[in-house]
Amino acid sequence: MCVSTCFWKTKKMMVDNKQVIFKGYIERAPKETDMGIKITKLDLHAPEGSSSFLVKNLYLSCDPYMRGRMRHSFDSYIPPFVPGQAIDGFGVSKVVDSDNPDFKPGDLISGFTGWEEYSLIQKPQQLRKIQPDDDIPLSYHVGLLGMPGLTAYAGFYEVCSPKKGEYVFVSAASGAVGQLVGQLAKLHGCYVVGSAGSGQKVDLLKSKLGFDEAFNYNEEPDLDAALKRCFPQGIDIYFDNVGGLMLDAALVNMRIHGRVAVCGMVSQHGHYDPQGIHNLFSLVRKRITMKGFLQSDYLHLYPQFMEHVVSNYRQGKIVYIEDMNEGLESAPAAFTGLFSGKNVGKQVVCVARE
């Protein structure tokens, strides 16, 4: 029995492994041609003595922060992509072979993985096991219950310190993070307005996501006037996902002791020389607190985040909108679409359905 087992573990099982490859560093908005599809060969066994494990990737997350990893010299919290190698990011995967006692074949996990059909995980990053639940789609573990969800939860409750009855503004409000921020704010008893880039998204904010009001920033020639119309009394909390002109306009419309959570700068990702902010004196005049943050600073909150969000989701008090692309080949288009507003909701790529 031992002989046959050892033989099985040493026998290679080679398969084709389709990958999305990063071609080279850029200083502009990403294009589909900055990535390519490559097929390599992969042994479906985890190397003995490596403590690694092999996964089949099911769902991949497209996130704006990945744009920063396409720059060669980028002072960031995460290393750049390596030209010629597969892109990596958050995903949901299934273990197919393991040399790690903590992970067994059949386990479902969420965490960092490659943009490829199969990945060998050697250094798990922010990796969590998923307990299958018929009521919760697996793909939600890269959205509602993944990095974007924890970003929304920590940013709203920890950075913004909300109070019932306050006035909350959320930019990129139909995106992966913004849609949950708005719903958390409503559950907390706040008045919530969101901005988005199309009439369809504005309708979703008001009809499905429960925002009190919303506007299409592409139809507003004067963002300051738009915010004054929506918030004649001023803004207590601004959850900023875009930076640029919207942040500038929001600052002059903040109330005294307002709070700004700086989550992302998606409007600036296509600029070689990003726009500066002109209204910073509002921080002094109105005693505003403005803070940047990462969800990785708040990983200790994950259990209470899960309890709060899952409970409200089961009760129908939270909904979540996904934009699902099918097939690994669709990943470059799905990712680049983030920067032109093509996605409606959280952008996910389905590689396989188990």
UniProtKB/TrEMBL annotation:
Residues in Enoyl reductase (ER) domain copies: 53-349
Any one GO molecular-function label of the UniProt entry: oxidoreductase activity, acting on the CH-CH group of donors, NAD or NADP as acceptor
Domain of life the protein comes from: Eukaryota
Pfam families in the cross-refs: ADH_N_2, ADH_zinc_N
Record keywords, A-Z: Oxidoreductase
Protein name (record): Enoyl reductase (ER) domain-containing protein
Species of provenance: Dipteronia sinensis
